[in-house]
Design a protein that fits this description.
The protein has 186 residues and is of the alpha+beta class. The protein has one domain: 2-Layer Sandwich (Alpha-Beta Plaits). Helices cover 34% and strands 19% of the residues. It is built from 7 helices and 6 strands. Strands 1, 2, 3, 4, 5 and 6 form a 6-stranded antiparallel β-sheet that branches. The longest helix has 14 residues. The N and C termini lie far apart (35 Å). InterPro entries: Hppk, Hppk_sf.
Amino acid sequence: MDTNYLVAFGANLPSQFGSPRTTLCAAIERLEQLGFSLVAASRFWSTPAVPEGSGPDFVNACCKMRSSLQPRDALAQLHGVEEEFGRVREGRWSARVVDIDLIASEDRVLPERESFLRWKNLPPEAQRRDAPTELILPHPRLQDRAFVLIPLAEIAPLWRHPITGDSVMDMLAALPEVEKNPISPL
């Protein structure tokens, strides 16, 4: 049985495929070659690198995709495409040729509610140094990231977070304008 996945894409360095935008198009195409079905895709968005001045602006987008893979296997495919495209994991929040994040798998919470809440509530200083070794769904930083919520609102505005019950539009509305204003469509 196929599962719906919400997937976020980002890049701010050129790759073997060309510009970040071209790279994201190629990554989506590669996932389709691997058996993911593209259901919907957002526009591409320009997003300043964080922290400010740490690199070129990112190109971000979100897709709704279907796959017969289970979430952990789907994540392994996403990571495989990142590696194939030249992604080197060199610390958190660094410049990259491609970043593909599994944001949600329908209303699943993985590995379970308590672990999800521990990662969601992790203090910012711990977020800089700690990364989960297991799949956490929905993505524990989803509600904090305008660069994910803005494109996600184009393709899944009514999707509801299975823990908080907030829709994508609710989460986006809760973000400060100062975080949303620098993000613009390409």
